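Below is how a single chain appears once it has passed through the pipeline. First comes the sequence as given, then the structure the pipeline wrote out for it. We keep one example in the README because the format questions we get most often are answered faster by looking than by reading.
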Amino acid sequence: MKTPFYNIALDNQKLKKKFIKGNKRAFDTIYSDYSSAMYSVCLRYTKNTDEAADILQNAFIKIYENRKSFNPQFELGSWIKRIVINTAINHYNKNKKMVLVQDESYFETEVESTVEVESSNDLKNTLMNTINLLPDGYRTIFNLYVFENLTHQEIATHLNISVNTSKSQLSRARKMLKTTLENQNIIKQTKSNAERA
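Resulting structure:
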């Protein structure tokens, strides 16, 4: 027999309230429910599994320390993910030197290209592995924009760069990713309108 939806919602509200009060069992339950997915988020900002584990640990310390600021009317997962992302960005800013070239020339000729998938076999893993091969700066901005849905203004604020730099690095990341996937025959090579003429 399935548990009624309202019971699940009620239990979720109880869990949130106990967590806010500092109940260890509630926190352990939340950690168990979210740590695996949040570890995957951490891995997007470092290629080192030990560093990812450190980021995750620091993030959950912050989650516990800031529990009283959480509004139980809101979704817990989104709040947790925001803290994890901020912790990952802070770790990145503290430990990496991101070399980003200020170059706005691409705005004059930039045309969005379509990506046509050749095969769907293990596509997700292939894409993630290819993204991990991007230079640190490109990868970080690509992740923040594509996976975390941050705006260029938000990325610029987080990384202390200009909005145009964020846009140009995202463009370069996309081009590099597309070229790599084409070379691996993961996607079909597409031609620009000029090349077709």
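The chain has a mean pLDDT of 81.

See the next section for the split statistics.
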